[in-house]
């Protein structure tokens, strides 16, 4: 019974991370799109800041996801990642 509850919370944690990844990527991209478009309209540099804003938003989204993955990795030290399996084959 305890193992089932633990698996449920593990799945819930990963589902939350997947949802967070989607929301972060969409929010970052839209903020970059809106901010870059606003700057381009102000400065007349279309589409320079629009493209820079979108790329920055995507980069921020990936950075956020990587930081979440690092936290998950620290919380579950018993679980080996693919990179650890390749360096220390059993």
UniProtKB/TrEMBL annotation:
Segments crossing the lipid bilayer: 12-36, 48-66
Listed InterPro entries: ATPase_put (IPR032820)
Keyword annotations: Membrane, Transmembrane, Transmembrane helix
Protein name: F0F1-ATPase subunit Ca2+/Mg2+ transporter
Organism: Neomoorella glycerini
